[in-house]
Amino acid sequence: MNDTSADVTYQVVLNDEEQYSVWPVDQPLPAGWRPEGTVGTRQVCLDHIETVWTDLRPLSARA
């Protein structure tokens, strides 16, 4: 798979530590990750993550 291909649709995913990543929508999610709700090109997803993930520390370190 070519990660920069324009025909691949990605989604923003989130884990229990509130860490973000991008994942192809047509691939099963790894254990511990759930969809965040944002779907689009890889760049759209990365731009969204840059906007919402302002504190990069895991949730357990912020508590």
Notes on the structure:
The chain is α+β, with helices and mostly antiparallel strands. Helix content is 24%, strand content 30%. A 3-stranded antiparallel β-sheet has the order 2-1-3, covered by helices on one side. The radius of gyration is 12 Å and the shape is flat.
Envelope shape: flat
Radius of gyration: 12 Å
CATH class wording: Alpha Beta
Structural class: alpha+beta
Which sequence of strands runs across the widest sheet? 2-1-3
Biggest sheet features: 3 strands, antiparallel
What sequence of helices (H) and strands (E) makes up the elements? EEEHH
Total tally of structural domains? 1
Secondary structure tally, helices: 2
Q: What is the CATH architecture assignment?
A: Alpha-Beta Complex
Secondary structure: helix percent: 10-25%
N- and C-termini, Cα separation: 38 Å
- Tell me the β content: 25-35%
DSSP strand count: 3
Which runs of at least 5 residues are low in confidence (pLDDT < 50)?
none
Using the coordinates shown, work out and report the CATH topology.
Rubredoxin-like
| CATH H-level superfamily | Structural Genomics, Unknown Function 30-nov-00 1gh9 Mol_id
